[in-house]
Amino acid sequence: MVAELKQSYTIPCASVFRDAVLALALRRRVNVGDLARSVMLVVAPDDIAGFADPGDAPPGDREEVILKSGPSAGRPWRRKPRLQVRMAPGVDWRILRKALAMALAMDEGRLKVRVDDKTELAARVAEAVAVERDRLGVMLAAARARDERPLTQAREEIARLRAAIDVLVTEPLPGGVGSRLDALFVLGFPPGTTPDPAEVTARFRLLATIHHPDSDLGSHARMSQLNQAVAYLRGR
Fold it and tell me: By the number of CB atoms within 10 A of the CB, which of 12, 108, 150, 165 ranks highest?
């Protein structure tokens, strides 16, 4: 599974600011993150940083939410208003708040972005898109590498186990299971031992996962002798 390429930002703000941003996003049929991204694409970073910050919620300004988990699940809780924005990692949430304030100012006509050179603007947008694409590409490659590492290790471990099994398993007895000693040998019990029925069943199930014809290392001959050995020790 590939890791998420976005993170959630919590932006503290006044409830009036929150409601205005949500209303603008609804009218434009976009999400809050799209509003911030649009401003950040066409406005220089220094201009966004220098824009007036709408600030946090004033004293007494609270929103009520219903807790969804924990011992108090289902109960109302009053907290400072906030906006949740999903953006690429590494963005200062204060810049996001200023970008959203600029979006409101543009929508209300209090702020206009003058484009003297459309070619320059297009180049700036193209550059921003290219940088974002390259950065996400690096993150995606890193995420894929992280996802592939456990799979590669598992494959290597399986290969080692298969090699060990090939060395440890015995060849089928030429004449089949004809004695108690043969049965103990096939099931891997030391000569002269007397395993109880539960031990015999457990050993059979373990070896059957290896020798069953449906497995990668399966063998009809070995599976047949496992059945013979169990039947012999059970006195059938």
Answer: 12
Phi/psi for 20 (5° steps) reads: -65, -40
- Is the entire prediction scored with pTM above 0.90? no
Domain match, 100 and 12 both: yes
Alpha carbon distance, N-terminus to C-terminus of the chain: 51
Instruction: Examine residue 223 and state whether it is found in any structural domain, yes or no.
Output: yes
Q: Is the pLDDT of residue 90 over 90?
A: no
The average confidence (pLDDT) of the chain is: 81
The H-assigned helical ranges of 112-211 are: 118-168, 180-187, 197-211
Last residue of a domain, one of 113, 130, 158: 113
Contacts of 147 by beta carbon, 8 Å cutoff, 6+ apart: 1, 2, 3
Residues spanned by the domain of 95: 7-113
3-state SS assignment for residue 12? strand
Q: Which of 113, 148, 180 delimits the end of a domain? A: 113
189-216: pLDDT as tens digits:
888 888 898 999 988 888 888 777 777 6
Residue 77 inside a domain? The answer is yes
Q: Which residues of 33-49 are buried (b: 16+ CB within 10 A; e: fewer)?
A: bebbbbbbbebeeeebe
pLDDT confidence band for 2 (50 / 70 / 90):
very low
Q: How far apart are CA 20 and CA 23, in angstroms?
A: 5
What letter does residue 28 receive in the DSSP assignment?
Answer: H
